Amino acid sequence: MAWWLDLIFDVIVAGAIAVIALALASFVKAQIRSFGRRSDRFDETLMNFLATVARYAVLVFAAIFILARFGIQTASLIAVLGAAGIAIGLALQGTLSNLASGLMLLAFRPFNTGDYVEAGGKSGTVTEISLFTTELTTPDNVQVFVPNRDVWDGPITNYSAHEERRVDLVLGVGYGANLKEVENVIRGVLDAEGRLHDDKPVFVKVTALGDSAVEFTVRVWVARGDYFDVKCDLTAALKEAMDDAGIDIPYPTRTIVNG
């Protein structure tokens, strides 16, 4: 009869452990999510994932205590689960690698949603960062999913990281041109462009003597959102200004001599 009493006692204790574990797991999960919402340093997706992992960790430990209460050898069970985990890990190593890379991206945040980046051999505006893939939208409105492993393992170029960007232009003029006059024409075009940042130095210098042209390099600073428009507009404006000033912009030619 005593064994019935022991069994009833064990069931009561196991039930109490289960109830406490469920309450504790829910509490831990809620606290982690709440912390993630209050902090700007951590991504919500990352904190939700960690909250779920913490909840299941509490439940697993509770299950081990319950099994031990009924006299079941948990050491062998843990060994079996460990071996199964290794086998599953080997079978899903690519997926798990994407998951690990996703956690690193969410934790260290080399880019955010809305940034224009080049990563994993692709470029576009970041639409979403999930645990397994990073979603990009290309300038021609094509949706691209890049595995997080490819993103994290390679170079990441974030074109939206800073509020200012530098526009670099190279302009070639003929060897017979007056270099001082060319510089004055270039600076006149730059002075007429109102989107340039006045607090940054303007660079206009001869930087190379090419095969058929003297090359001027022009460097100016603009707001990030104006970069492409300013680059295109300055290219066209410099061409028109050179034409108006009668300054030749040479292009490579090839002379064929028939023997």
From TrEMBL:
Descriptive protein name: Small-conductance mechanosensitive channel
Subunit-structure text: Homoheptamer.
Signal peptide positions on this chain: none
Every Mechanosensitive ion channel transmembrane helices 2/3 domain range: 53-93
Family as reported in the entry's similarity comment: Belongs to the MscS (TC 1.A.23) family.
Transmembrane regions listed in the UniProt entry: 6-28, 49-72, 78-100
Gene3D superfamilies noted in UniProt: 1.10.287.1260, 2.30.30.60, 3.30.70.100
Domain called Mechanosensitive ion channel MscS C-terminal: residue spans: 168-249
Subcellular location: Cell inner membrane; Cell membrane
Membrane topology, as annotated: Multi-pass membrane protein
Predominant subcellular localization, coarse grouping: membrane
Keywords, alphabetical: Cell inner membrane, Cell membrane, Ion channel, Ion transport, Membrane, Transmembrane, Transmembrane helix, Transport
Organism, scientific name: Pontivivens ytuae
Cellular component terms (Gene Ontology): plasma membrane
Domain Mechanosensitive ion channel MscS intervals: 95-160
One MF term in the entry's GO annotations: mechanosensitive monoatomic ion channel activity
Keyword Ligase applies: no
Top-rank taxon, per record: Bacteria
Task of the protein: Mechanosensitive channel that participates in the regulation of osmotic pressure changes within the cell, opening in response to stretch forces in the membrane lipid bilayer, without the need for other proteins. Contributes to normal resistance to hypoosmotic shock. Forms an ion channel of 1.0 nanosiemens conductance with a slight preference for anions.
Entry-linked InterPro entries: LSM_dom_sf (IPR010920), MS_channel_1st (IPR049142), MS_channel_C (IPR049278), MscS_archaea/bacteria_type (IPR045275), MscS_beta-dom_sf (IPR023408), MscS_channel_2nd (IPR006685), MscS_channel_C_sf (IPR011066), MscS_channel_TM-2 (IPR011014)
Keyword Cell membrane (UniProt): yes
